[in-house]
Each structure stands twice: as C-alpha cells, then as structure tokens.
Amino acid sequence: MSFLKHEEIIKRCEKINQSYEIEPEFFDRIVDDLLDSEQDTETVILKGFKGLLAEVDHEIGRMEEYTSMKPNCFMGCAFCCYFPIVITKMEAKMMFRSIENFSEDRRKALYEHWDHYFVQQEDKLRQATAMDYEAPETKLEYKKLDLPCPMLNPETRLCMAYEVRPIPCRTYLNYSDPQVCKDHHMPKEPFSYEFLYNFYFGSINELIQALYENGEDVFVDYPMDAWKYDYLPNWIEQWRAGTLSEI
C-alpha cells in the first residue's frame, strides 16, 4: 500500500488554505432549525451539541474530498488519545449531560472505568494537570507521560463516548503511513483541522446565548462557563464529585 509523504500532504493542505471556502451556513442551519423547533430546551441543547460536533466531521470529509486525501487512521490505534484534551466548562457540562442519556449498560461501563482510571492513573494525572495547557511544550511533555484519555477503553482501544468526543479528538488525522504515529510522540505527517473549532464553538455559543436571552434554563452558567477552560480529566473529577456546578 502506498502512503502520502509529508511534502505531498503539505502541498494538498495548502490547497485548502488557498482556495477552499468553508460554508458557515452548514453550522448556522443546525442552530436555526433547533431554535425554530418546539422541542424542550435540554433536547435543543444536546441535539445542537452533538449535531455541531458531527458537522465538524462532515466538513473535514468535504475538505478531504476537495484535496483527494483519505485518512489512514484505524480502529484501535488510539495514538491521539494520549494528547492533552482541553475544553470549556460549558462543553464539559453538555458532554456529561449527554453521557447521562446513554443506555444503562454503556453508562455503567464508563462510570466503572472511571472508578479504576482515577486510582490507577493518580500519579500521572497529578503531573499532567499541573502543566500549563497554554505552554507550547506541554503537548509533547504530556504525551511522554503515556497517560490515556479517561474516555479510552483500555481493552478495545476505542472511545467510550465516541459521538460526543471533543473537537481535538476529531481534527487530528494521519494521511501518511500509520507507522509514523507508532514511532514518534509528535510525528510531522498528521494534519490538524483545529481551525474548525471556531465554527463549532461560535455556533454552540450562539445557540446557548439565544436560549439564555429568551429566559430558558440552559443548565450552564452562561456566559462564564463558555470561557473557563481546563483539562478533560479535571472536569470529569469535578463532575464525579458533584462540584462541577459549584466552581
């Protein structure tokens, strides 16, 4: 099997920067349709959250088609599941509320996994979450700890909350030989679509703001929760302790 080289990946990705235009209307339509619906507020928020996350996947697919690239990521790789994941408190609350709506078996499996995870990974978590997530060296130093994401099933090597996984988990893709991920902490070949976060976050913020200004119960402290960032494991620990709404 032939794989794209780094130079060819860069060349094709430059095509995105130079001539590809993202259509905000794809994101706007999700928000507008939900605000025009008769559904209850929580349903609107959670459908918007999952719908906008999925739209990031769709937009990446359109860019891949535009550049004739196909990712070589495969189920069970989990390479990017060892990077630091930083999200807002608002996103964390929407993620946990979505998880509460999982089937009983699925929800129980995740909760039991967390019971073991936070005990087994205590030392590494202390080191990892003490790092300044804004510092440029943090990503590599965090990766070197070999600390798995708390959503990663250690047996199947699959995400246990796949449909509501955060943006960083969706936007890091490898179009080259998968071996480069196995051989390096920070391979140069994978490409990040992190710039799509602005489209997603702008839309989810617009949705929550509209509901908030209409006097709806949005189950988040808006706008404060929209601008508080932290590591995903920290949000999970606060949620498990029942203190997420108090901070």
List the helices and strands and how they pair.
Blueprint: H1 6-19, H2 25-35, H3 41-67, E1 86-88, H4 89-100, H5 104-120, H6 122-129, H7 138-144, H8 167-170, E2 172-173, H9 179-183, E3 191-192, H10 197-213, E4 229-231, H11 232-241
Antiparallel strand pairs: 1-4, 2-3
Helix pairs in contact: 2-3, 2-10, 3-10, 4-11
Please explain how this structure is put together.
The relative contact order is 0.19. The longest helix is centred in the N-terminal third of the chain and has 27 residues, at 41-67. The chain is mostly helical and 247 residues long. The chain has a two-stranded antiparallel ribbon with strand order 1-4. Strands 2-3 form a two-stranded antiparallel ribbon. The chain has 11 helices and 4 strands; from the N terminus they run αααβαααααβαβαβα. Helix 2 (25-35) runs parallel beside helix 10 (197-213) and helix 3 (41-67) packs antiparallel against helix 10. The chain has one domain (6-241). The chain has helices at 6-19, 25-35, 41-67, 89-100, 104-120, 122-129, 138-144, 167-170, 179-183, 197-213, 232-241; strands at 86-88, 172-173, 191-192, 229-231. The chain is globular and about 55 Å long.
